[in-house]
Amino acid sequence: MQPQRIIDFHHHGGGTAPADYLRQLVPQAQHWNIHKIVMLGLEWPGITMSSRNRDILACWKGEPGLVVPFAALDMQKSSDPAQVDALREQGFVGLKFIRPPVPYHDERFYPWYDRAQQLKMPCLFHLGIVARLPEWEGHRTDSNLMRPIHLDTIARSFPGLTLVGAHLGNPWYEEAAMSCRWNPNLYFDLSGSTLKRMRPEAIGELLWWGGTTYPAYRDRLGRSAWEKILFGSDVNAPDIGDVIGDYNRLVETLELPSELVDAIFYRTGASLLEAAGLTMS
Asked: Which of 56, 198, 205, 212 is most solvent-facing, going by the fewest CB within 10 Å?
């Protein structure tokens, strides 16, 4: 099954200069009928990756109809809401969070979340186990601070804030699924190794609720669990097709109806971007 249209809600730069990466990315987007690509900034001292906020802005300026820029905030710094204002003024649509020194739901970060809620800027959080990077070696990195249950607290505290949790919380999948069900403003992607290591049936058991579920246990808005799941690649341009194949195997094995397949690949992501102020073609 080839999706008719796609929004990639989890993407970074590709290890090269922005202009060079766009020359790889645009043909892939055209080939796979990808309408929008959310590109996520990364910011921390000594960063060795080529996805700093300035790189993401350059990609957006090079392909403004395709790229949707999300800015990273360095969570080691004080959470001044003026930082969010400045990023919005630069053109960023949403925010990306990773590697906090304390749990994501610590109230020291609330000024950022509150300002993002006011500005209708969706926030995407890395969740679960995190990669080992050269600049982090020998420094404390605690994956337990990035558990999906922390987003449950934030979603309840900021009901007008759109939150996206990456990787379905790998390996804390049950936390992610139950947090997703109870919070109408919380969504997840399945990027990373999850679709490589887990059987589709196991993911289906986690995301079990829908329109026929006993009313007390449904999503508050009556949605299927799959209407809370976004397509995200989290790979470089040449490998996007491989991730699309992983998602296709999932939806085909579970025999999801076409309207839910479209929700995963496009419709839900489009609704979140429209709520953030983007016009979808």
From this structure: 212
Q: Is residue 131 packed enough to be buried (19+ CB in 10 Å), middle (13-18) or exposed (0-12)?
A: exposed
Reading the block at residue 261, the tokens are 């397949």
What is the reported pTM?
0.97
Helix axes 81-90, 110-119, angle to 10 degrees: 40
3-state secondary structure of 95: strand
**Neighbouring-strand partners of residue 204:** none
Residues 192, 167 contacting (CB under 8 angstroms): yes
45 contacts 76 by C-beta, under 8 angstroms? yes
pLDDT tens-digit map of 37-77: 999 999 998 888 889 999 999 999 999 999 999 999 999 99
Q: Are 55 and 25 in contact (CB under 8 A)?
A: no
Backbone phi and psi for residue 24, each to the nearest 5 degrees, phi listed first: -85, -40
- Residue 147 located in a structural domain: yes
184 inside domain: yes
Residue 231, domain extent = 6-275
Place of tokens 């209407």: 227
What is the rounded distance in angstroms from the CA atom of residue 133 to the CA atom of residue 76?
Answer: 17
Per-residue HEC secondary structure of 62-91 comes to HCCCCEEEEEECCCCCCCCHHHHHHHHHHC
Q: Does 281 reside within a domain?
A: no
pLDDT tens digits, residue range 96-154? 999 999 999 999 999 999 999 999 999 999 999 999 999 999 999 999 999 999 999 99
The β-bridge relationship of strands 67-72 and 123-125 is unpaired
Q: Which CATH number fits the domain that encloses residue 131?
A: 3.20.20.140
Pairing of strands 163-165, 6-11: unpaired
